[in-house]
């Protein structure tokens, strides 16, 4: 599906002649093999403990999360198939939609990011999804330090925000140094361009590639990129070895942009899902409830299972430890092909149009062009 252009950045050249790496797949410890081992560790039919009431985590469940399946990035790096998202954990950014709706007011969250991330690490999460925009990396770093988890056992991702992207190379370098200091590490496993800021994101990406060569970033990716943004990168001369390894976008059955996802996967780009649980706004959906009753799972676990079964990196987040534990219990059952197809079909044309509106708004968000359509692509693939 295409939306006719009303603003253009110029001719975008498609590098179809470049050889395409195969789509990333789960490591040898696949979800299927993980299911077999996990089922033997749990007793979902127990009268006293069900998968819907997992506030008490067993040592076996924690170890299963630590040993979760991984997805191979282009260079062979093992990316955990599940991680803990830290957006609005302990801090709500001023331009977050909820803060804007409240007229700029950001009530102090009841728990700090340090407390929440401590719970996540204690529960077995080893992939932490962070960002400059989230405003809580120092608190995350405190939790990491106090946890005693070896750095090599963690997979840490951060993202550079639009404001910094617009300012250019010097600001990007300074921000990465701040992120590393806050998180208490000398490298991040993955660094993403948070939004494809018009006229700025390509140079920003090239700067992050330089930071990778300097050893401060292990892998480079993007976030919220449409197919056309990715092609713009390629047309700027990004080499095969420097192509993004990840694209983080909203993915759930209610916003399943299959054409876009299939394209990126054909390019060997691993898809990270944010809003995997749709911010808790779909838990009364009849399809999710019905499947949950069949498998003795919560609606959130059905959403998470759909995500990992498609091969996407699943990034749930919660400030409640019982939800952290519950959200992770998605590797001990499997949905049928028909059930997956039913969930796939929940995306509506209205949802796609809403996505387009958000894209147009956010690529210039918090920059000097905020609120304008200057440079914004409108001829993008939305499905």
Notes on the structure:
There is one protein chain. The chain has 383 residues and is α/β, with parallel strands linked by helices. Helices cover 38% and strands 10% of the residues. The protein has 15 helices and 10 strands. The strands form 2 sheets. The chain has an 8-stranded parallel β-sheet. Strands 1-2 form a two-stranded antiparallel sheet. The longest helix is centred in the middle third of the chain and has 15 residues.
Topology:
Blueprint: H1 31-39, H2 59-66, E1 70-72, E2 78-80, E3 84-85, H3 97-101, H4 113-123, E4 127-129, H5 137-147, E5 155-160, H6 162-167, H7 169-183, E6 190-193, H8 201-213, E7 220-223, H9 227-235, E8 246-250, H10 258-266, E9 270-274, H11 286-295, H12 299-309, E10 313-314, H13 321-328, H14 337-344, H15 349-362
Parallel strand pairs: 3-4, 4-5, 5-6, 6-7, 7-8, 8-9, 9-10
Antiparallel strand pairs: 1-2
Helix pairs in contact: 4-5, 5-7, 11-12
Q: Largest beta sheet, briefly? A: 8 strands, parallel
Helix vs. strand class = alpha/beta
Helix content: 25-40%
Terminal residue distance: 6 Å
- Count the DSSP helices: 15
Overall pLDDT metric: 87
- The stretches of 5 or more residues where confidence is low (pLDDT under 50) are 1-24, 36-54
Radius of gyration: 20 Å
Strand content: 5-15%
Order of SSEs, N→C? HHEEEHHEHEHHEHEHEHEHHEHHH
Which strand order does the major sheet show?
A: 3-4-5-6-7-8-9-10
Question: Multimeric state of these chains?
Answer: single chain
Total number of beta strands: 10
Net shape: globular
């Amino acid at each position: 599906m295409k939306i006719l252009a009303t603003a253009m950045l110029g001719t975008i050249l498609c590098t179809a002649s470049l050889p395409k790496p195969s789509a990333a797949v789960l490591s040898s410890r696949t979800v299927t093999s993980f299911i077999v081992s996990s089922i033997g560790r749990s007793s979902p039919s127990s009268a006293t403990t069900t998968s819907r009431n997992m506030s008490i985590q067993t040592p076996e469940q924690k170890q299963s999360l630590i040993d979760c399946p991984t997805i191979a990035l282009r260079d062979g790096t093992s990316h955990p198939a599940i991680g803990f998202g830290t957006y609005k954990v302990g801090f709500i950014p001023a331009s977050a939609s909820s803060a804007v709706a409240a007229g700029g007011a950001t009530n102090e969250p009841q728990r700090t990011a340090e407390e929440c991330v401590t719970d996540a690490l204690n529960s077995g999460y080893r992939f932490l999804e962070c960002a400059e925009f989230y405003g809580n990396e120092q608190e995350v770093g405190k939790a990491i330090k106090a946890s005693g988890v070896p750095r090599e056992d963690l997979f840490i991702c951060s993202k550079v925000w639009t404001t910094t992207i617009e300012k250019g190379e010097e600001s990007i370098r300074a921000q990465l140094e701040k992120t590393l200091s806050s998180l208490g590490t000398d490298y991040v496993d993955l660094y993403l361009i948070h939004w494809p800021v018009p006229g700025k994101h390509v140079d920003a990406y090239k700067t992050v590639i330089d930071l990778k060569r300097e050893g401060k970033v292990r892998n480079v990716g993007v976030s919220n990129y449409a197919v056309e943004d990715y092609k713009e990168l390629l047309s700027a001369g990004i080499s095969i070895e420097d192509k993004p390894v990840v694209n983080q976008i909203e993915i759930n059955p209610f916003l399943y942009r299959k054409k876009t996802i299939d394209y990126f996967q054909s390019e060997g780009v691993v898809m990270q899902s944010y809003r995997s649980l749709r911010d808790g706004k779909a838990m009364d959906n009849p399809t999710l409830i019905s499947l949950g009753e069949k498998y003795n799972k919560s609606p959130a676990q059905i959403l998470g299972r759909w995500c990992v079964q498609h091969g996407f990196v699943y990034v749930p987040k919660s400030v409640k430890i019982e939800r952290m534990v519950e959200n992770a219990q998605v590797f001990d059952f499997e949905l049928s092909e028909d059930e997956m197809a039913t969930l796939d079909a929940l995306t509506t044309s209205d949802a796609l149009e809403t996505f387009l509106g958000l894209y147009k708004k956010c690529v210039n968000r918090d920059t000097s062009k905020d609120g304008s359509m200057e440079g914004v692509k409108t001829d993008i693939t939305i499905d």
